[in-house]
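Q: Start with the shorter request: fold the first protein.
A: Done. Sequence, then structure:
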Amino acid sequence: MGLDDPVIWILVAAVAMFLFGATKIPKWARSLGQARAEFNKGLKEGVDVKSEKRVQ
């Protein structure tokens, strides 16, 4: 019985819903998704800048 057990994750989700409410969790998920997208965009721009410096 480790963290890969689905029962544990169901219990964690139920406790999170109880503690934070059902309205906060989607907002947090949306915020995390936007942050991840910005991070990936920054990584891509960083790679583009490095490749441009090599060409010039």
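Q: Next, the second protein, separately.
A: Sequence, then structure:
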Amino acid sequence: MSKDDVALALNHVDEGNRTTDIYIAKDWKIVDDVQRKVIAQLKKVEIKVMKKIQVKNGIKSVAA
């Protein structure tokens, strides 16, 4: 059932259904999953960058 149907049934007249939102539990599973995946990717990139920096610094310290 749509949010508009719920608003109509509860006799809510506000634009944007702000009052109706109080009664509807939001499912954040999709957002949570996406955020977890983004964080995992960022950690992988961070590890790769840190390894490159260590290799670069190791080469500089040997040549110097």
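Q: Describe the second briefly.
A: Residues 3 and 30 are 19 Å apart (CA to CA). The chain has one domain: 3-63.
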